[in-house]
Amino acid sequence: MYNPKSLKAEEFIDNEEVLATLAYADENKNNLELVDALIEKAKLRKGLTHREASVLLACPDEERIQKIYTLAEQIKKDFYGNRIVMFAPLYLSNYCVNGCIYCPYHLKNKHIARKKLTQEDIVKEVTALQDMGHKRLAIEAGEHPTMNPIEYILECIDTIYSIKHKNGAIRRVNVNIAATTVENYRKLKDAGIGTYILFQETYHKESYEKLHPTGPKHDYAYHTEAMDRAMEGGIDDVGLGVLFGLELYRYEFAALLMHAEHLEAVHGVGPHTISVPRIKRADDIDPNAFDNSISDEVFAKICALVRICVPYTGMIISTRESKEVRGKVLRLGVSQLSGGSRTSVGGYDEPEPDDERSEQFDVSDQRTLDEVVKWLMELGYIPSFCTACYREGRTGDRFMQLCKSGQIQNCCQPNALMTLKEYLMDYAAEETKAIGEKLIEAELKKIPKEKVREICIDHLEKIEEGIRDFRF
Ligand code: SF4
Ligand code: SF4
């Protein structure tokens, strides 16, 4: 029985409710009066329900789809301006006891190189990431009780935060590890993590169980209820995501929004971020096994709808997507982007030899961070290395309130300019630097409060003089 307030996975992601939603969407997809009314409702920037959003996803009318794109672009501009927050993934270990059939790290894959970073390796990898200019990492690890216990993850987080190389520092570590206990989430919270990210992969229980035939991840309820345990453990910024291409995308989309509604109903705060990965070719994975892959057009529509249905939630896109696709969906609402990524265990400090490859998926966007930064600026975006919010205690509902009132804009714009300035001073190529300096000059004018603008100008001068880490 559907109940968004229930703590039971099968009640807040009730299969019957998802199916009823899809039927409702099918019945109404050509009801243009309703579609128009929903687009009007979305303009209020208060979001749409999973049922409403599903009607828009099913609607084939080209003119309405364009209206959705235009609105997504506008909401993106209003809430996020032209800023894009940069991050990089860091794979700690690919030892894994699970049997996920779409991932090359599954237990039975005997020919992928198994690796686990030592603390010395982490120092090298993080130094290399700092030398690229990264300030924000998402750490990733397979699930393995003896190779990757929580103590190992905590030690890695400690090491990462402790490395200060030249002007570099990792200021925010987001964590993407397997579903775990409230006690372990509390430990992660105490270690000072940013967002806890866990992809659902698919919300369709039957498919989920088939795709995860062995290992602890097989337990659908334990996995789906992980965010509730994370929040109980004190982590109030959580990141959702599904792996598009595993189940039918309309099912996933409706259920993803139901999950967001559940978090809001129970904890008073929705997801901090939503990721939209699509399945990619990888070692020991048969791409033909998944016939639900989605086209670039559908992918763009999903991104636009996420933007208008959950306007306050950040949207993340990885290097799984090509430069072209990233360029398109950036406009439609993506707020965070990885750059210069390696999806192998190690590989930032030294490239992996061909016979020891350990990557989780093929990277479509192979450009360096500096190339991505330059490209973003040429498209008119401000690459931001800001990590201020959680360091200032702006998390969970406090963060959401600032977002909803629009006040966060007084922090995001100056923080983006100051962290970009740090990047330009410490890491950028000459050409990137020249473009960036001009951009900062132009963008300073867009800081609404004069006092904030003055402080920002002062900080920018101090950054020139070598001082770092200013924030609002
Ligand atoms: Fe392990 Fe995660 Fe890969 Fe599954 S998706 S095999 S849990 S690393
Ligand atoms: Fe994100 Fe907060 Fe920085 Fe804005 S000020 S970019 S919301 S961390």
From TrEMBL:
InterPro entries: Aldolase_TIM, BATS_dom, FeFe-hyd_mat_HydG, rSAM, rSAM_sf, ThiH/NoCL/HydG-like
SUPFAM superfamilies per the UniProt record, alphabetical: Radical SAM enzymes
Domain Biotin and thiamin synthesis-associated: 275-383
Keywords: 4Fe-4S, Iron, Iron-sulfur, Metal-binding, S-adenosyl-L-methionine
Source superkingdom: Bacteria
Cofactor(s) required, per the database record: [4Fe-4S] cluster
GO annotation, biological process: sulfur compound biosynthetic process; water-soluble vitamin biosynthetic process
Residue span of region Disordered: 338-362
Matching Pfam families: BATS, Radical_SAM
Record NCBIfam families: rSAM_HydG
PANTHER family (alphabetical): 2-IMINOACETATE SYNTHASE, THIAZOLE BIOSYNTHESIS PROTEIN
Name of protein: 2-iminoacetate synthase
Native source species: Mobilisporobacter senegalensis
Lineage: Bacteria, Bacillati, Bacillota, Clostridia, Lachnospirales
